[in-house]
Amino acid sequence: KAAEKIAQGIREGGSSVDIFKITSGELPSLKPYDVILFGMPVYYFAVPIVMEKFIATLPRLHEKRIYAFFTYGTFHFQASDHLRRILRKKDAEVEGWFYCRGADFYYHYNTRGILPSAGHPDERELSEATEFGKNIARRTNLADYPMKSTPPKALYRAEMLLTNKFMVTTLFQHLFRLDREKCIRCGLCIK
């Protein structure tokens, strides 16, 4: 939803836009694009592993204008710091950031019927997303979209440590087993 509203704002601002989902297979070359907007959900307070791997495959981005948006369920904490470090390896700096609440698929919440961000992004957030897109197209008011970074409390730092990229790819991925009796058929495990 947020990506489409940002794209709508870019079009309303007088520019053209193409949306590509990085998990949908072959992507076109980014060479003809002047602006790149990276959008993603926050995954355990960080950039999703799939996005980090995708960015690693890209050429240097030093001649591109870069923007980013995050959707998050409970907290985004320092996800933007993480993305900034990843993009610096590609000689890129983010010129504007957008954040809004979005779907939260944390397993232990969902299996208990808890939806921390139900109804998000809401109309206000979607309107702000459209305005962000307009400002990208017009290159105006981008100072209104600074990077936000909040140090997490100790409990969340422990959770971040246990769910970092290394733990997910080398340990948890191998321990995951589908229990068909408990499956709620959300489809997340196959993504």
Describe this structure in words.
- Helices cover 37% and strands 12% of the residues.
- It contains 7 helices and 3 strands; from the N terminus they run H-E-H-E-H-E-H-H-H-H.
- Strands 1-2-3 form a 3-stranded parallel β-sheet, sandwiched between helices.
- By secondary structure, the chain is of the alpha/beta class.
Question: Helicity level, as a percent range?
Answer: 25-40%
* Rg of Cα set: 17 Å
Number of strands: 3
Q: Mean of the pLDDT scores?
A: 83
Sheet with the most strands: spatial strand order: 1-2-3
Largest sheet features: 3 strands, parallel
Number of helices: 7
Tell me the β content.
Answer: 5-15%
Low-confidence stretches: none
Q: Give the overall shape.
A: globular
The ordered string of helix (H) and strand (E) elements is: HEHEHEHHHH
What is the end-to-end distance? 19 Å
Helix vs. strand class: alpha/beta
Features:
191 residues, alpha/beta, 7 helices, 3 strands
Task: Write a short abstract of this structure.
The protein contains seven helices and three strands, in the order αβαβαβαααα.
Secondary structure elements and pairings:
Elements: H1 2-12, E1 35-41, H2 49-57, E2 65-72, H3 79-88, E3 94-101, H4 107-110, H5 123-138, H6 154-162, H7 165-175
Parallel strand pairs: 1-2, 2-3
Helix pairs in contact: 1-5
